Amino acid sequence: MACNSTDLTSLRIGDDTVERTDNFRYLGSVLDASGDNDRDIEARISAAWAKWREVTGIICDPKMPVKLKGQLTSNIVSI
User: Fold this and answer.
1) 73 part of a folded domain
2) Is the pTM higher than 0.85?
3) Would strands 23-26 and 29-32 be described as parallel, antiparallel, or unpaired?
4) 25 within a domain of the structure (yes/no)
5) From start to end of 27-76, where are the E strands?
6) Per its UniProt entry, which superkingdom is the organism in (predicted)?
């Protein structure tokens, strides 16, 4: 991502060529060239729903002990 540069299509660093992009992920956050954080928020919401779908089978299973469900829930919240 290049700031304040509209004519730049790629950047050459040594022998490598890096293509220009409007957004990219850095340390878990999605950075956008316009400075908006909408894509970051959408990515975080999407990740949270993915985790929920991953554990919903265990949390909603009536055969699972309540103590195990509580431990799972407390581990999810601490992450």
Assistant:
1) yes
2) no
3) antiparallel
4) yes
5) 29-32
6) Eukaryota
How far apart are alpha carbons 48 and 41 in whole angstroms? 11
**Contact criterion met (CB below 8 Å) for 70 and 55:** no
- Domain span at 35: 10-78
The tally of domains found in the chain comes to 1
> Is 3 within a domain?
no
Selected residue with higher pLDDT from 14 and 35: 14
- Ramachandran angles phi, psi of 48, nearest 5°: -65, -45
Contact between 23 and 32 (Cβ < 8 Å)? yes
For residue 67, is pLDDT > 60? yes
Residue 36 lies in a domain: yes
